[in-house]
Design brief:
Chain lengths: 183, 289
C-alpha cells in the first residue's frame, strides 16, 4: 500500500503558550439528515411536546446529558400518508466537544438511524491562533500545505461516542414518556 | 472536471467514524460512502466483543481444542495480530493487556496465563488451546478503516479520508495535515499525509483514553503490570491496522521498537509537552523526513 507523508515538526521546537482552538465541521443540514434517514418522499411535521415536571424527571434520570431537551426539534414522519416514525435533532456536549445530531426512530421507538449534523470543539487558548500557527509554517517540509486551513484531521481519541450514547438514551426515554401513543 | 465532496460522521466501533471523499459523480460518491460504512459495520459485527454472535464471542465461548469457523475479515486481523505477537515476542499480545485494564463489564471473567501462543490459526478457522479472552480493540478498528478506504478507492474516488476516533487513513493528490493532542500543549500539527495512515495514543499516568469513555491501562505482558507511560505516541504506517497496533508496541518497548517499526515500514513520533515547550523524538531515531 502506498505511503506518502512528511513530518511537520522537528525535535527541539520551543512553543509559545498552549493552544487548542475551536474548529467545526458541518456534515449535514437538518433537511439533508431528514432525507438521509428517511429517504426522499417522507414528510416531516414538527410536533410540539409539553412535559409535566414528573415527565421531565423521568427523562432526565436515565442519562447524564444535561443539554436542554429537544422539545422543539421533534418531527413526526409520514410516508405515503402513513406514520413512519420520528425524527429528532438533539445536542450533546463533553468537556470540549459540542455535537448536533439527528436520530431516526421507527414506529416502535427504536433507533433506525443516526447522523451527525455538526461537530464543534472549543478550547481555551493562551495565544492567538495566527501566532500559534506561525510557529509551524515554514517548518513544514515537502508538500505544499495550507496550515491556515481549519483543522480538519485530528489523530487521538475523543469522548464523542460516549456523549452521543447518553444523548440517545435520553431521546429513547423521551419517546417512551411523551411520544409513544399509549393505549 | 468539477468534483463533488461529501463528508459524514457516524458512530461505529465505539467511536465516531468520519468519512470524507471526492468523486466526479455525486451519486457514485453517495453510494461509495454507504458501502464504506457498510464495510465498517461488517467488521464491527464480526469482531466486537460486545456484539452477540460476533466471531469473537463464538471464539470465547468455544471449548478449548474446538475449531471455530471465522469470517475472512476476522482471520485477516488475527493473522496480523499473531504475526506481530511473534515478531515482538509477545510484547504485543491480543490475549493480554488492554483487556485487564478495561473499566466496565466484560462478557466473561478473564482467565490468567493465556497468551497469543494459545491461539491456533488455520485457513478460515481458529481454536484456543486454553480459555482466553481476545481484545482486538484498535487492531480491528484500524482494519475497518483500511477496508472502508479500499471501498472508496474501488468506487473511483479521487481522494478519501477515513478517521475512526483518531485512527485515520487517506489517499489523494493533496496532503492532509493531521493534528495530534499533546497533554499540556493542545493540538499540534504533526504530519502531512498524502497516502497511508496515522494512529495516536495519548497516555497520562500509564492510562490511555479510548473514544468511548473507557480507559485502558497499558499492561506490559512481560510483567503483567501496568507500564508507566506519558505523552502522545503517533505512528504513521502504510495501513491503519499496523499504525494502531504499533502505537502499543512503541508505548511498551520504547526505543527498542525501532527494528519492528522498520519491519512494518512505519515511523513513530513521541511527544510530550508542557506550556512553552514540546519534547519530540522520532523512532527510528534516524528519521529525517
Amino acid at each position: 500500500m502506498e505511503h506518502r507523508y512528511a513530518w511537520l515538526l522537528a525535535p527541539g521546537l520551543i512553543l509559545a503558550g498552549t493552544a487548542e482552538f475551536a474548529h467545526a465541521t458541518q456534515y449535514l443540514s437538518v433537511e439533508q439528515a431528514q432525507a438521509a434517514l428517511f429517504g426522499p418522499g417522507a414528510r416531516f411535521e414538527r410536533t410540539l411536546v409539553a412535559l409535566s415536571e414528573a415527565q421531565r424527571q423521568t427523562i432526565r434520570a436515565v442519562s447524564k446529558t444535561r443539554t436542554p431537551l429537544p422539545l422543539e426539534r421533534i418531527w413526526e414522519v409520514q410516508r405515503e400518508g402513513e406514520p413512519a416514525g420520528w425524527f429528532i435533532v438533539d445536542e450533546v456536549y463533553g468537556k470540549h466537544e459540542y455535537i448536533t445530531y439527528a436520530v431516526a426512530l421507527d414506529l416502535e421507538g427504536r433507533v433506525s438511524g443516526l447522523e451527525i449534523l455538526d461537530y464543534r470543539e472549543t478550547h481555551g487558548a493562551e495565544v492567538r491562533e495566527a501566532d500559534w500557527r506561525a510557529q509551524f509554517v515554514g517548518k513544514a517540509q515537502g508538500a505544499a500545505l495550507k496550515l491556515e486551513q481549519d483543522i480538519r484531521n485530528i489523530s487521538g481519541a475523543t469522548l464523542s461516542c460516549l456523549h452521543l450514547a447518553e444523548g440517545v438514551r435520553r431521546v429513547l426515554q423521551l419517546h417512551e414518556t411523551a411520544l409513544k401513543p399509549h393505549a | 472536471m468539477p468534483e463533488s465532496e461529501l463528508s459524514r460522521a457516524r458512530t461505529w466501533l465505539g467511536t465516531l467514524v468520519e468519512i470524507r471523499a471526492r468523486h466526479v459523480r455525486l451519486e457514485v460518491l453517495e453510494d461509495a460512502l454507504e458501502r464504506a460504512y457498510a464495510r465498517i459495520a461488517q467488521v464491527h459485527a464480526r469482531m466486537s466483543v460486545h456484539e452477540a454472535g460476533s466471531d469473537l464471542r463464538r471464539l470465547h465461548a468455544a471449548a478449548p481444542g474446538t475449531w471455530v469457523p471465522l469470517a475472512p475479515d476476522t482471520c485477516a486481523v488475527l493473522e496480523f495480530a499473531l504475526e506481530l505477537s511473534r515478531r515482538t515476542d509477545g510484547v504485543f499480545d491480543p490475549c493480554v493487556g488492554a483487556l485487564l485494564g478495561l473499566v466496565g463489564a466484560l462478557p466473561v471473567s478473564a482467565p490468567s496465563g493465556a497468551s497469543w501462543r494459545d491461539l491456533e490459526l488455520a485457513p478460515g478457522r481458529a481454536r484456543c488451546r486454553r480459555p482466553l479472552l481476545l481484545d482486538l480493540g484498535g487492531v480491528a478498528k484500524g482494519y475497518a478503516v483500511d477496508q472502508a478506504l479500499a471501498e472508496l478507492r474501488r468506487a473511483g474516488c479521487s481522494a478519501a479520508l477515513v478517521n475512526a476516533g483518531g485512527d485515520l487513513a487517506c489517499f489523494g493528490p493533496e496532503p492532509e495535515p493531521v493534528h495530534v493532542r499533546v497533554a499540556g500543549l493542545g493540538l499540534v500539527p504533526l504530519l502531512a499525509l498524502s497516502a497511508g495512515a496515522l494512529a495516536s495514543s495519548c497516555y497520562a499516568e500509564g492510562v490511555a483514553a479510548a473514544g468511548d469513555g473507557r480507559v485502558s491501562a497499558l499492561i506490559d505482558p512481560r510483567t503483567g503490570a501496568p507500564a508507566a507511560r506519558s505523552g502522545t505516541i503517533s505512528v504513521t504506517a502504510p495501513t491503519a491496522m499496523s499504525a494502531d497496533a504499533l502505537t502499543k508496541v512503541v508505548a511498551l518497548m520504547g526505543d527498542s521498537a525501532a527494528p519492528i517499526l522498520r519491519e512494518y515500514a512505519a515511523q513513530a513520533a513521541l511527544l510530550d509537552g508542557t506550556a512553552g515547550s514540546l519534547s519530540l523524538r522520532f523512532l527510528p531515531t534516524d528519521t529525517t523526513r
